[in-house]
Recover the amino acids of this structure.
């Protein structure tokens, strides 16, 4: 079979197995983003406390961080298709439990505090599952797509993730308004079933021989050493981690939607989706016209612009201004996501993909939940608006420090 042409913008999606993976990823990520958006609204409705939203992130990030390094070792030593199927099945179980907690049977017999505790417990369990699922999806790409078109595959992968995210964020507000929490969770369960079916169409991906006999701790240390000695990887992960950690304005969107902008659940869904709408637009553009030079420098500039948009959002009292501030932040974040993802795929050898993706999840993915917790704590100490503005300013400071500390990343081109 002839390989797709490197300059073909549709090169990777012409591979049937990659298409199936992207269909599964879209459905799965859409379900997860719907779940996270719904849980944020649900918890705030139960508690009326911004700090309680932060606890959601802490509930998920503790197990995700604790299990990440071990998960990377297991991914490299496991048959990856089977592992991903297990992860999607367990996520379906978690969503089913949330569905049961949302029913009138539970609300009629238990108080709001007890229900909130149960929700936190379920989210804690999803943190364990996520430590395996996220890196597994990332590792699969390198096994399916030839290295010559990995940049194209990475861009499509990020576009799929962002499209699913914006669809999940944008629709969940409407669904909550018209179907309620129980109806929305039913749709989430259906999406996970569809993702499971699509994943069954992938070919098995057994571990490579290099990983067969390695002990757990030696395998983990090898992955860590590789990331820390590859400065481009370390710099890109660190920059994104701290930017997301301090720039997590989306965590406070339920408060802005209900108490500051007063736009209700539908407006909440659109505000949540704003950054992802911007990201999708940029990823489509980058798919058709990839960046050819100065990718490292552009990474720094886009993260700095992201911080400025977060400050603008913090002080906005007008829905359209808030929406466009988040949308532009998403456009800038879309560039950084594609650059970082491409660096990771190009710089990671096949036999270490699980471990490197897991280290990345510690740096990048978990920073979303840590940022959510940081936002909740800062909102409690400083107030909602000052805490979001503070986060944007700290993002700018991180960019400035990393600019001087990571010259190889600043100068990088691919």
């Amino acid at each position: 079979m002839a390989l797709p042409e490197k300059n073909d913008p549709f090169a990777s999606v012409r591979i049937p197995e990659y298409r199936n993976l992207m269909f599964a990823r879209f459905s799965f990520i859409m379900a997860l983003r719907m779940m996270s958006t719904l849980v944020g609204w649900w918890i705030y409705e139960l508690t009326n406390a911004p700090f309680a939203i932060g606890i959601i992130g802490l509930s998920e990030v503790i197990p995700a961080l604790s299990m990440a390094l071990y998960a990377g070792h297991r991914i490299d030593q496991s048959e990856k298709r089977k592992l991903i199927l297990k992860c999607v099945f367990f996520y379906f179980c978690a969503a089913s439990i949330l569905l049961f907690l949302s029913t009138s049977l539970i609300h009629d017999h238990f108080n709001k505090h007890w229900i909130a505790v149960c929700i936190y417990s379920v989210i804690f369990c999803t943190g364990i599952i996520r430590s395996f699922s996220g890196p597994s999806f990332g590792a699969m790409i390198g096994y399916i797509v030839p290295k010559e078109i990995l940049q194209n595959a990475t861009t499509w992968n990020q576009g799929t993730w962002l499209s699913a995210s914006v669809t999940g964020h944008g629709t969940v507000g409407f669904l909550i308004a018209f179907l309620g929490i129980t109806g929305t969770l039913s749709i989430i369960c259906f999406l996970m079933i569809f993702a499971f079916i699509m994943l069954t169409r992938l070919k098995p991906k057994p571990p490579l021989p290099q990983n067969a006999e390695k002990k757990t701790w030696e395998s983990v240390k090898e992955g860590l050493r590789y990331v820390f000695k590859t400065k481009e990887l370390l710099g890109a992960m660190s920059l994104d981690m701290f930017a997301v950690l301090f720039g997590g304005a989306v965590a406070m969107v339920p408060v802005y939607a209900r108490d500051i902008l007063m736009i209700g659940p539908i407006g909440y869904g659109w505000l949540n989706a704003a950054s992802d709408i911007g990201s999708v637009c940029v990823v489509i553009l980058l798919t058709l016209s990839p960046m050819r030079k100065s990718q490292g420098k552009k990474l720094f500039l886009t993260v700095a612009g992201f911080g400025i948009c977060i400050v603008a959002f913090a002080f906005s009292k007008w829905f359209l201004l808030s929406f466009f501030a988040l949308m532009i932040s998403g456009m800038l974040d879309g560039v950084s996501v594609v650059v970082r993802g491409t660096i990771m795929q190009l710089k990671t050898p096949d036999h270490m993909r699980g471990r490197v993706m897991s280290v990345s999840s510690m740096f990048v993915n978990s920073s979303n939940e840590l940022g959510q917790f940081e936002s909740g704590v800062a909102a409690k100490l400083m107030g909602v608006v000052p805490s979001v503005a503070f986060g944007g300013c700290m993002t700018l400071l991180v960019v400035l420090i990393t600019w001087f500390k990571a010259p190889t990343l600043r100068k990088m081109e691919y």
User: Anything to note?
Assistant: The chain has a mean pLDDT of 83. The longest helix spans residues 150-199. The domain at 13-199+216-410 is CATH 1.20.1250.20 (Growth Hormone; Chain: A;).
